[in-house]
């Protein structure tokens, strides 16, 4: 990771860029290396999966339109073994396609054409969200009657077993748990979980709240922990 000024230097953040457009790969590699990232690049899905396993990147930038397989299949392949943040970069603009990628396990979605500054900001945000929570917080383990959330370890347990969450599900859960008992507005949730350019895509929230309830609530149809405030937002209650 990149180290703050004065800290002991750490290993540079490693980025895996997956895109079949050479000019985009070149632009990303130049800009990322200029900001002291380590960069690997793949032009198809099969190579990308091999590189991810071999190089263990800290964050992945993925185009959905690859020559050998759909990018969503790459996401699913990665999510079978890693929680590395995945930032989707695609010319597909429809809401359904965005939801499909996010539902498969992507963390954010940037449409082409894109601004390099925005993309780099999204990438930095994805890396920050994936970093372990520093010690010394007042409460890092939150317990309910149905499940336990360990904010430091980024783990959820239910009935003595770990519950597997996608990175996006975790980010949504984390924001709500850190605001226990308080209403978190739809726009705030969207911007904290998906990025600053989001604010109206309430269908994302419905999809992910349904998934969290299915995985964590004793009765998903009648939730007691993930409460909807119609037209306003959501609230986490113990």
TrEMBL record:
<keyword id="KW-0597">Phosphoprotein</keyword>
<dbReference type="Pfam" id="PF00486">
    <property type="entry name" value="Trans_reg_C"/>
</dbReference>
<feature type="domain" description="OmpR/PhoB-type">
    <location>
        <begin position="139"/>
        <end position="238"/>
    </location>
</feature>
<dbReference type="InterPro" id="IPR011006">
    <property type="entry name" value="CheY-like_superfamily"/>
</dbReference>
<keyword id="KW-0238">DNA-binding</keyword>
<dbReference type="Pfam" id="PF00072">
    <property type="entry name" value="Response_reg"/>
</dbReference>
<dbReference type="InterPro" id="IPR039420">
    <property type="entry name" value="WalR-like"/>
</dbReference>
<feature type="domain" description="Response regulatory">
    <location>
        <begin position="14"/>
        <end position="127"/>
    </location>
</feature>
<dbReference type="InterPro" id="IPR001867">
    <property type="entry name" value="OmpR/PhoB-type_DNA-bd"/>
</dbReference>
<dbReference type="InterPro" id="IPR001789">
    <property type="entry name" value="Sig_transdc_resp-reg_receiver"/>
</dbReference>
<feature type="modified residue" description="4-aspartylphosphate">
    <location>
        <position position="63"/>
    </location>
</feature>
<protein>
    <submittedName>
        <fullName>Response regulator</fullName>
    </submittedName>
</protein>
<dbReference type="InterPro" id="IPR036388">
    <property type="entry name" value="WH-like_DNA-bd_sf"/>
</dbReference>
<feature type="DNA-binding region" description="OmpR/PhoB-type">
    <location>
        <begin position="139"/>
        <end position="238"/>
    </location>
</feature>
């Amino acid at each position: 990771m990149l180290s703050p000024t004065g800290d002991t230097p750490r290993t540079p953040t490693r980025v895996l860029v997956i895109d079949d457009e050479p000019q985009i790969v070149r632009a990303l590699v130049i800009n990322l290396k200029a900001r002291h990232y380590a960069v690997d690049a793949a032009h198809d899905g099969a190579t990308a999966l091999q590189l991810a396993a071999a190089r263990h990147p800290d964050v992945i930038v993925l185009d959905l339109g690859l020559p050998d397989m759909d990018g969503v299949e790459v996401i699913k392949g990665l999510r079978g073994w890693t929680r590395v943040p995945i930032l989707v970069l695609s010319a597909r603009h429809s809401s359904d396609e965005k939801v499909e990628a996010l539902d498969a396990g992507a963390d954010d979605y940037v449409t082409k054409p894109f601004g390099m500054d925005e993309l780099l900001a999204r990438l930095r945000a994805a890396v920050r969200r994936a970093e372990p929570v520093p010690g010394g917080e007042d409460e890092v383990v939150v317990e309910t009657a149905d499940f336990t959330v360990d904010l430091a370890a980024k783990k959820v347990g239910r009935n003595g077993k770990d519950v597997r969450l996608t990175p996006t599900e975790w980010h949504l859960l984390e924001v709500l748990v850190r605001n226990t008992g308080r209403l978190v507005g739809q726009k705030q949730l969207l911007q904290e979980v998906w990025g600053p350019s989001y604010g109206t895509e309430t269908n994302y929230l419905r999809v992910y709240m349904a998934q969290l309830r299915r995985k964590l609530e004793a009765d998903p149809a009648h939730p007691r922990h993930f409460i909807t405030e119609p037209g306003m937002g959501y609230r986490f209650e113990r």
